[in-house]
Amino acid sequence: MISTKQAEKILSQALSQGGQWADLFVEESIKNQASLSDKAVKTVSQNQVLGAGLRVVSNLKEYYGHTNDLSEAGLSKLAKALASSVASGEVTKKISLDSSSEKPQLHDPAKAPSQVGWKPKIALLRQADQVARAFSDKIVQVNASYMDETQRIVVANSDGLYKDESRTRGRFALQTVAASGEVKEFGYESPGALKGFEFFEHLNIPELAHHSAETAVRMLTAPHAPQGPMTVIIDGGFGGVIFHEACGHSLEAHAVARKATVMAAKLNHRIASDCVSAVDDGTLLQEWGSTVIDDEGETTRRNLLIDQGVLKSFLVDRLNGERLGLKSTGSSRRESYRYAPTSRMNNTFILPGHSSLESMIAETDYGLYAKKMGGGSVNPATGEFNFAVMEGYLIEHGKITRPVKGATLIGRGEEILKKIDRVGDTLSMAQGMCGASSGWVPVNVGQPPIRVRDLLVGGQA
Fold first, then answer.
1. 146-186 residue pLDDT tens
2. Is residue 147 packed enough to be buried (19+ CB in 10 Å), middle (13-18) or exposed (0-12)?
């Protein structure tokens, strides 16, 4: 997309009137999407993205611009515009880029989506629709979507870095709606991976559709959940969204540098129970949130965030690392060239402990089993959260007795971490899209089952 010589010229122009450093991000991507609703295919589309983002940093302030004109003239125009914005008059060094570094292709797809036509992709949607509707006559709607994306990036900076990576992802999402009279309930599944079409070939569509439909139908007749403080067991997989939202965002360096998080002064302090350890790992093989390099060209890595309850690390990008006096952790991400990068999560999860889910339930006299979490909201400055339970069950005398619906989990990230008294021995992941100042990026959330004491459960009276 851009040679080392071209990138050297653009970076030199960007720093021609001052600045400490500059970086260039060039992207070419193709995204294919299809959706089904009301038993019919509603959309089939292909979106192509081609462009470059350029950043100059001077005195810890960033100047960012982007263009979809990758001609020499187009990139030069962008570089000169940024240079005039900086205009600090500082002398800059000669830039020499090195493209000889090893390029590990850890996540290469076995079958590129471009090799597969639309017919088998749409067949997946129709199969999901048919299986879900066949489960019960109470299923009144099925919404299914298919997505594959291949993104190629080149990152270069004024320190001599020049790296590239190709990333191929796929995701299948399914929502089923069950109705009885005016009551409606939902089931939802949305697996994804850093893989090619082989991901879809190995996906068990009937199982996904059956589980989604079963959840929706079961919740139709469930009574509303009890309210008040109680013991809550949050299952693995998407249960990790609470840790992601209520704690993970508080550990991102862009928030820490602004002191916009309660965690800013907690490094090397206890923030959780000693049974809690957590990591953010961008290296996991072919996982949804993984990459070989981050969007500043740093090699991604496994970052230990919490070790036996003690906060050990933030997630750090280059600019905010300089503001904090910390080194990059390979955690800089962006949706596309249109966004300046910043610190973000990749695959964030609580590490497995030593308790089985069965023993946690057996040792709980009364409480709520949150088998699957739904959406919610969080205030990153305070860590206060409110999350819906999509699929919940009442625990009485150490046994799951009946499904309940309408529960919400309410609390603060800092408090919930200290109330965890059991961590399960089996880790599972779920896929999501995380939105922040640098756009939407694919992330994994995850955890083993965890048990939380005295968590406030809200709902409908």
1. 999 999 999 999 999 999 999 999 999 999 999 999 999 99
2. middle
> Whole-model pTM?
0.95
Indicate the length of the chain as a whole number. Answer: 461
Task: Categorize the per-residue pLDDT at 88 as very low, low, confident or very high, splitting at 50, 70 and 90.
Answer: confident
Alpha-carbon distances, residue 422 vs 48, 272, 354, 363 (angstroms): 47, 12, 8, 10
Q: Return the residue matching tokens 């050297």.
A: 8
SS3 content of the chain, % helix, strand, coil (to 5): 25, 45, 35
- Residue range 383-406, pLDDT digits in tens: 899 999 999 999 999 999 999 999
311 contacts 266 by C-beta, under 8 angstroms: yes
Question: For strand 228-234 and strand 366-379, is the pairing parallel, antiparallel, or unpaired?
Answer: parallel
DSSP annotation of 266 reads -
CB 369 within 8 A of CB 392: yes
Residue 461 has pLDDT above 80, yes or no: no
All structural domains of the chain with their residue ranges? 228-458
DSSP string, 184-230: EEEEEE--EES--THHHHT--HHHHHHHHHHHHHHHHTPPBPP-EEE
Task: Read off the pLDDT of residues 300-309 as tens digits, 9 standing for 90 and up.
Answer: 999 999 999 9
Q: Residue 216's closest CA among 43, 397, 390, 434?
A: 390
